[in-house]
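Suppose a classmate hands you a notebook page containing two proteins, each written out with its sequence and a corresponding row of structure tokens. How would you begin to make sense of it? This section walks through that situation. The first entry is reproduced here exactly as it would appear on such a page.
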Amino acid sequence: MRQPFQILVIPFIKNETNYQFCALLRTDVAVWQFVTGGGEDGESILETAKRESKEELNLKGEFEMYKLDSYSTIPSFHFSFSKPYVVPEYCFAIDLTSFSGYIELSIEHRELKWLSYESVIRLLEWDSNKTALYELNERLKNDDMQPI
């Protein structure tokens, strides 16, 4: 059963000169965003973030995950809930720099792009994605990342 919370996960990699972030184009509403999804049954927020990352990117290996401070709420009409009226969205990031596997999109997305901060922020539809990206970019610039 769907739990009344949402997660957002930003995949990123470090190349020789900067960081790049993975934006996904949704199949159903044609908007660019990061990995998103909701908790199932008794999943914790962290378990949901890991599962959604693996499902939406078809990840088969291990990766570093980080909790972000960014937090937002989404009106419940975007989901099948009548109450609560807003659903909390918890934000995370995953480092795929050393990931040796292949990324294959789920049916939820039709395209992905690895882009710089300046490029990806212009693509994103939702303010919550932009805020979380800003936080992640600042943390990366300041070497302020602690894996969970």
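The notebook's second entry, a different protein, reads as follows.
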Amino acid sequence: MALEQFNLEGQVAIVTGAGRGVGKGIAGVLAEAGASVVATARTSSEVDQTVREIERSGGKGIALTADALVRADSERVVDTAVARFGRIDILVNNVGGAAFAPFLNLTDEQLRVTFDRCVTSAFMMSQLAVPHMLEVGRGSIVNISSGVGRFGVRGFVSYCVAKAGLESLTRAMAQELAPKVRVNAISLGTFMTPGLRSGMAALRGWEDRLNELTPLRRIGDVADVGRLTVYLCTRDCYATSATFQLDGGIEKSNFPTSLPDL
């Protein structure tokens, strides 16, 4: 009986930034749970691969090439989801981006673009998807955040500000869209993604240092983000306006390198 609550059969999920890393992991787990997944990304080859893997595992999905910062692209994603599957139940706003720059070198444009990728994209997709959730009578939005929005990291001012903004957007939307649509965020720590794997290959000892600075002494698996997402999308989930920390227990940055004092 308990496991039946996690069956998402018949539900339709949109996952942005699903071409690789965390977004790909979430899309795969949602499909395993029975949802039909509309996977989006800017790179066609990557999002196509995500859906091929979903289908090989017996799931259902479609791949759409789209830029989450372009409203016309987001409108096309929502319209295609409804035309293909008839409804929208779940939206995972995973798109983001970080600009690494010391505070005194950070440009207005870097700050603006990072905020748009993390916050404006989630706002636009949610605004377009929610009317269809209201037609269904319920829905769940999950915003993918980061611990940097809570404790800050040197060199990532724009990313810290943007993720804090995303969590604030989560709370504000949750209050306004209740009771039919629930809105939650997942604040991530360090997860094994292609980008992280590339960084560890380039910097000797980085993986050991990351593990050492994480209380659970290991790097997260992206499928675990998917499993928490499934819970947040179950119909009887009582959570809204919440930010769930999925970070191995970190209370400060576990980034192995840091900028020197000014």
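A careful reader of the second entry would note: Residues 205 and 256 are 9 Å apart (CA to CA).
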